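Narrative of activities, Objective 1.

The group set out to show that a structural description can be obtained from nothing but a protein's sequence at a throughput compatible with the screening campaign. Below is one input-output pair from the validation batch, recorded exactly as produced.
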Amino acid sequence: MRMKQISKFQKQFQQQFKKQFARGTALAVQKYNQQFGRSRKSKIAAVAALSIAALSFLWIQFSGAEVYSLTIGGKEAGYLTEQSLIKQAASNIKADYKEKGIELTIDEEAISCEPTDLKEGSITALNLEDLKNVIAASEACTANGWAINIDGKNIAVVASEQSANQILEEIKNHYLTSGSETISTAFKENVLVTQAAVRIAAFMEPENAEAKLLAGETAPVAYTVKDGDTLWDIAAANGMSEAELQNANPGFDPNKLKIGQQLNLVALKPYITVLTKERITATEKIDFNTVYEETNTLNKGEIKVKTAGVYGSKQVSSEVTKENGVPVDTKVIASTVMEEPKDQVALKGTKAGSYMASRGGGRAISVNGTGSEIVAYAKSFLGTPYVHGGSSPKGFDCSGFTQYVYAHFGGSLPRTSAGQYGTGDYVEKSQLKPGDLVFFTSSSRISHVGIYVGGGSFIHSPQSGEDVKISSFSSTTLKYCGAVRASN
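Output recorded for this entry:
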């Protein structure tokens, strides 16, 4: 540490002190002579008493703890009134981190403490604890830590090599399927654990380092608007709110969304990609076939289940390759049928006449909105819990959900799924469009309804214990029966 031997202020103080002391003493003697005479003893007593008074006055005027300016690495870091605090703080910091297993180095040459002309009362001096924090956070305080280095960049630093390696193992395990047989795990990136001299402030607790590596970093992504997109769809698909999407696109008018338009998104980019290969054995359903029997007891186009089909089951062993838990390749190793499925028998009407009349009186339904608008509104209720008999955002059953959504667009639907099946215009499955009502059957009756969203998927309020969600025709256990469309 560098220290000036004497400051300009100190020299001025000495000169001023001599002048004031002499002047004060002379005045004291003069006053005493005027009042008490000139006896030798009296003069001595007066001079002594008044000199002490003069000294006290001067001490008040000129004394006080000296103020030092602290700089670390050339940067101002505050003020001190005791230089000795620096060595004490450095010693305490080293002791604190030694308990954590970290041997650190403090570059005392980078710390400068010099006198100032300031008075103690005009500044706020650093105490010992403040000084420890300032030094520990500075570049003068470093230690050898263990860095998790990804593609040449240190992402997280911890105290020990063991902690760093344990973090990487935990990250691998995070993406493994419970109960599966692990064939291999690896990192897609070049991942190393290396020693690195870093600032103390850069050290992380192991759990925080693991969370950072799993969370990833934000990165800009461009999105091209497609046919049928809505602001809500784009935001939800990319983990953003509508407000965040608008903020990422200054000047963007959400009411003028156009096909081919480029939007800025903010997406999470993983720091690290875990490649896993597992052998997974699972029981899967085998879909049943539907056999149709023609009958003139039903109108043409009407279908009624005569005998419900029964799903079969099979045990399938597969080798599944994943990236961060997302399957990218599946290879079936073995498949064993446990139970054969049983065909469903359905009656298919051939009777000429109005199909609509036979499905509930042919009551027409119209809505003031497009299919895409209906879907977008329905998606705003994703996550709403299933409630038996529910028909509000507090909770829906299947037909209560579709009734509530259609009512928003002026469409009046019956309360039950069977009743809703008798409205609108019948639509073949191959002709489905977003916003159509899709129906499902169990045994011989209509038992469930949802709203088609496109791409072979529909949104619905499934059953007790589940929330409003989107399912696909290919994965649902529900048996598709038919669909209807409202006019607009």
